[in-house]
């Protein structure tokens, strides 16, 4: 979405996570967490979604996607990153993706050998082999998501976008979370401002091209 909003040209290399194409020496050699996305620009590797979009906006300044209150905007990017492993991933895996991304013993051994991030290693160990997420894991994830989206709901009161009337990196960081979580059954019915915000971003070309083109409906994944 950021690349499209800024009118930048790029070459895409798609990895099929269900085929475990990210679990390879080559990809871990680029991204030590084995996660997507990864950006390589001018020979420099950038990982983590929110760091990538911040870098793109700093490096390619026009049109700017930065809010006047940059401190508050960056707080939203940091929050989106902070809830990823403890909130979003457990919910998404428990509700939908764990069976689809189940690793064979060989794949699990390969992943354990490559993965040095202990937080991610601990997370994936919870659904390795015949294991499944416990109710307490899902409850903790729901609590984190509820708290975060309640904050977003309050912030969007009287605002078109998270930072006001300007579409910024804050929106780009939270739109994929909304899309994926909604596709996994998380209910936004109690958040009317978020629902209105979602209806607005669904009309943007960058959303249609950057999200829907690749995955028309996450519920069908």
TrEMBL record:
Domain GST N-terminal: start-end pairs: 1-64
SUPFAM superfamilies: GST C-terminal domain-like, Thioredoxin-like
Pfam family, one: GST_N_3
This enzyme's EC code(s): 2.5.1.18
GO MF term (any one): glutathione transferase activity
Top-rank lineage group of the source organism: Bacteria
Keyword entries, A-Z: Transferase
Signal peptide interval: none
GST C-terminal domain location: 66-221
UniProt-recorded name of the protein: Glutathione S-transferase
Organism (species): Planktomarina temperata RCA23
Lineage: Bacteria, Pseudomonadati, Pseudomonadota, Alphaproteobacteria, Rhodobacterales
